[in-house]
Amino acid sequence: MLDPRIASWILEFVLRQPVEDWLANELLFALPLPSPIPPRLKKTFLLRRLSSDVSHRSLAGSTLFSLELIEELDRSSGADAPSDSLAAAYAAVAVECTARFLRGRLDGDRGGNFFEAVNRIWSCRVADLERSEAAGLVSATLREARREMEEAVVNPIVRVGLMGRDTKMAALDAVRVYLEEAEKEMGPPYLECVAETVGEEWRRSSVTGSDGSVGELDAKLRNLLARQVEDGRCDGPPDGDRAKSFGLVELEKLEESVLDRGKDAPKQGGCSTDKFERLPATAAEVMKAKNVFRSSVLPAKIDNMKENQNQMDLNPVFSVNDCAGKGNESDHDAMSQQNLMDQDPSDLKHVEENRERAFLSSIDKGTKDGNPGTCTCTRDNIDCAGAQKPSLMDWNPTARRFEQDEDFSLSPSENSPNPSNNLRFPSTKRRKFSLALEDNRTFIIRRRKRKWSSLEEETLRKAVERHGAGNWKFIKSCHPEIFKNRTEVDLKDKWRNMMSSELLIVGSLPLERQKEGGKGDHQQTYNHSFSGLEKSHWKKI
DNA sequence: GTAGGGTTAGTC
DNA sequence: GACTAACCCTAC
User: Fold this and answer.
1) Is A174 within the bounds of a domain?
2) Is the CB of A291 under 7 A from strand B?
3) CA dihedral in degrees (A256, A258, A263, A269; nearest 10)?
4) Segments forming the whole domain that contains residue A441
């Protein structure tokens, strides 16, 4: 089994190479990555995503989300404030994600999508940004752009001016500038750093008459890497720790990984120095490495390219599709992506094992379906026309469904992070759910109960504070990912329950009333306390 | 789209 | 069985 840490080094290296997106996806899902995923690898993913977006000229909400995650990663790593290039890229992409709807306007569209985008991106997303710890991303340029967008909503002249600008090219350029800066700051991939150093050492050994054996290389590696650790010359392991914190265990693992390559070479003086001068850098070499994995550590799915590719289509990390210019927009999906980064750990117990992988998926889903700018529609995705467009493979989180039955469950846990795994078939043995007969042939089946997570509750609470109770549709649209499994009515009901509980807790109700409890009680307490807070004001937006 | 009353599943 | 949260239905 490949060591997860080594796998992360390999993946970091591959992601920095000009390999095809599908290959990056394959490796991402196939390699046994460590948990938690090292921040450096996370950032590599994000940069790769940005690079992919740029190369496909597909800037969407996912791009914006990637930039937000990078800012968060940098901040968590101790960075004081986002770089100017990052803030500039964010502002430019936000403008493009909005202005694209003006370019893509259909004759019958009076700008509805544009207005919606302004509301979604600038009134919700950027406004939230300003109030968050990520406020560093809010540059003067972004503020000015926000003013312009809001002005464009009411002023056709401003909209025309916006349409006349090449916001896409400006955004692409800004992202490129940031990418160059970020990649320069990150330095070469860790494996490349090691390979270069090892190759240099090996050549020196050859000149000094070494026997070229793997055993000697082992000894030299130990000395070499020990010096690297002391000098801190290497960029350090992918988790961002500096070389000095690179423990002996990791050191030995690294050596093993390098030495494993040496085993393939003839031991009698045939261990070519070339073998260690560099690690795989081309797609062909990566493919070769992949074949090695295939025979050792990679699961069967990597053997089944076609099947795996289908999975990628559903949930790719690196998109190869390009909806640019087609009006595709999924940023309101991406907008709440951070829920996978910010979720209350207690809410993620059921996905703990896959949490980090979920992060990777979420990156991509920026669209949260995870597919920034792609036309590949997956769960909760938005199609290129901006409308919900579920595929046949999509899971409708609010659709009526058969209840769980252990005999027919396809998933070991209903808490599976992948809802599509939660397919259930009706039981002939037990039927705890109601089956109201709608007509002679159709049964109305209740959805399975899904307990609200603290993240959902907190998001709802904050949303109501901000937008008022009663604006459930809008609140849901502001947090599509967090509330992807909830309907507007669910939000309303939940708020009703929350208010009911709070009033009971603080003793706002007479004791007799509290004792009554039960049916219908929550409705009354809710109605008396929250009757469409500032609703009329809000609806002016 | 939302409010409000009713129903049901899950928990203790 | 009581209680509660989640879900459903229907009127507006």
Assistant:
1) no
2) no
3) -120
4) 400-446
How open is the CA angle A420-A423-A424, to the nearest 5 degrees?
Answer: 165
Q: What is the pLDDT of residues A140-199, one digit of tens each?
A: 889 889 888 888 877 778 888 888 888 999 999 999 999 999 988 888 888 787 777 767
Q: Answer whether any strand B atom is within 7 A of the Cβ of A448.
A: yes
Instruction: Return the percentage of chain A with pLDDT > 90, whole number.
Output: 7
Q: Is the CB of A387 under 7 A from strand B?
A: no
pLDDT of res. A6: 79
Which of residues A392, A417, A446 is at a domain's end? A446
Count how many domains chain A has.
3
Backbone angles phi, psi at A136, to 5 degrees: -60, -20
Alpha-carbon distance A444 to A301, whole Å?
Answer: 38
Are A30 and A293 in contact by the 8 Å Cβ rule? The answer is yes
Convert A108-119 to b/e letters by CB count within 10 Å (16 or more is b): eeebebbbbbbb
- CB of A347 nearer than 7 A to strand B: no
Q: Which amino acid is at A254?
A: L
- Position A88 scores a pLDDT of 92
Same domain, A236 and A200: yes
CA–C1' A233–B12 (A): 61
Q: Would the Cβ of A492 be found within 7 angstroms of any atom in strand B?
A: yes
Lowest pLDDT segment from A129-143, A177-191, A339-353: A339-353
**3-state SS record for A84-103:** HHHHHHHHHHHHHHHHHHHH
Please check whether residues A199 and A271 belong to one and the same domain.
yes
Distance between the alpha carbon (CA) of A441 and the C1' atom of C11, Å: 26
Residue A419, domain member (yes or no): yes
How distant is C1' of C4 from CA of A450, in Å?
14
Question: Same domain for A198 and A240?
Answer: yes
Q: Does a structural domain hold residue A250?
A: yes
How buried is A413 (Cβ within 10 angstroms: 0-12 exposed, 13-18 middle, 19+ buried)? Answer: exposed
A536, with CB counted inside 10 A (0-12, 13-18, 19+), is exposed
Do A206 and A272 belong together in one domain?
yes
Residue-level pLDDT at A450: 87
Question: Strand, helix or coil at A445?
Answer: strand
pLDDT in tens, A5-57: 778 888 888 888 887 777 777 677 677 777 777 888 888 888 888 888 888 88
- Strand B within 7 A of A474 CB: yes
**What is the bridge-based pairing of β-strands A443-445 and A435-437?**
antiparallel
Phi, psi of A229 (to 5 degrees): -65, -45
User: pLDDT by residue (tens digit) across A423-460?
Assistant: 333 333 333 334 444 444 455 677 888 889 888 888 89
Neighbours of A199 (CB within 10 A): 17
In a domain? residue A501? yes
- The residue from A280, A307, A339 where one domain ends is A280
